[in-house]
């Protein structure tokens, strides 16, 4: 089951990454549209802004807290990896399950003149090929939702993080069930199941569940937040961009899994509108 999931994730990103870069650019994650989600902003700038907002939120946007060795878990084609390496003038490593992404990210590192400082590996985040205490920043921007074992994932993040180092994890969640709304309804679960199928996800959990796992793994100084409102406009922008002739031609060339993903973009938009999909943040130290 797990090997099949990994293969599905690999094939999905092998097929779709080129089109995404062609239409959207190097950043394969949500954009930030202001705290109230109402800023009218260029889509690429919104994706850069979320990186900067996250660094500020995690207290890493000061000269006293400059990371020296960064791990980007679920690096895509190296958007965040290269951005962070350039910003901090430091070493960075990205891992992904997609050979296509590793190849393209490596090309982009060479093009940016960062081949000596940035490297990319084909690797499983649940079995990272790194020594204990290797990195002082572990960065995971929208990869946790792909992990079939959330506990093992965070255990691995803890293992490779240096003492005193920082974890920044941002991931798709479902709404909390520890409130008056109670457990997920059958309709909500059906909605999530459709998202799982399209985007090759095993399951998602709530932000409070992530908080509990993070503490269980031994992390300290945990902080969390929900930026769903700030990022929700992203999917409507993606839908608009998918309706251009250039995108349509690219979709036809990319294969069925990518076409299916494009046809299902409204699942995420509707999920945010209903309050079912949440955009969860965790930062903590070892």
Automatic annotation (TrEMBL):
Coiled coil: none annotated. The keyword Hydrolase does not apply. Residues 71-169 form the Methyltransferase type domain. The keyword Transferase applies. SUPFAM superfamilies: S-adenosyl-L-methionine-dependent methyltransferases. PANTHER family: GERANYL DIPHOSPHATE 2-C-METHYLTRANSFERASE, ZGC:194242. This is Methyltransferase type 11.
């Amino acid at each position: 089951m797990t090997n099949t999931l990994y293969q599905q994730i690999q094939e999905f990103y092998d097929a779709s990454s080129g089109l995404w870069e062609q239409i959207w650019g190097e950043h394969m994650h949500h954009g930030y549209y202001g705290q109230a989600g109402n800023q009218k902003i260029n889509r690429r700038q919104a994706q850069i802004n979320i990186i900067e907002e996250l660094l500020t939120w995690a207290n890493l946007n000061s000269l006293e807290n400059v990371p020296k060795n960064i791990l980007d878990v679920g690096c895509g084609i190296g958007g965040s990896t290269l951005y962070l390496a350039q910003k901090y003038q430091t070493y960075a490593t990205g891992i992904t399950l997609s050979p296509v992404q590793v190849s393209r990210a490596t090309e982009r590192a060479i093009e940016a003149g960062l081949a000596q400082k940035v490297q990319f590996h084909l690797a499983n985040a649940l079995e990272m090929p790194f020594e204990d205490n290797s990195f002082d920043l572990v960065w995971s921007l929208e990869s946790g939702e792909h992990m079939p074992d959330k506990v093992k994932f965070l255990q691995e993040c803890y293992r490779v993080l240096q003492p005193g180092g920082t974890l920044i994890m941002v991931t798709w969640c479902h709404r909390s069930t520890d409130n008056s709304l109670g457990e997920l309804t059958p309709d909500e679960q059906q909605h999530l199941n459709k998202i799982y199928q399209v985007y090759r996800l095993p399951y998602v959990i709530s932000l409070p569940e992530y908080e509990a796992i993070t503490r269980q793994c031994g992390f300290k100084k945990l902080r969390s937040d929900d930026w769903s409102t700030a990022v929700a406009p992203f999917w409507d922008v993606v839908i608009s961009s998918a309706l251009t002739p250039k995108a349509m031609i690219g979709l036809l060339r990319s294969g069925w899994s990518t076409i299916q993903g494009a046809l299902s973009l409204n699942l995420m938009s509707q999920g945010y509108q209903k309050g079912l999909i949440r955009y969860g943040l965790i930062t903590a130290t070892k």
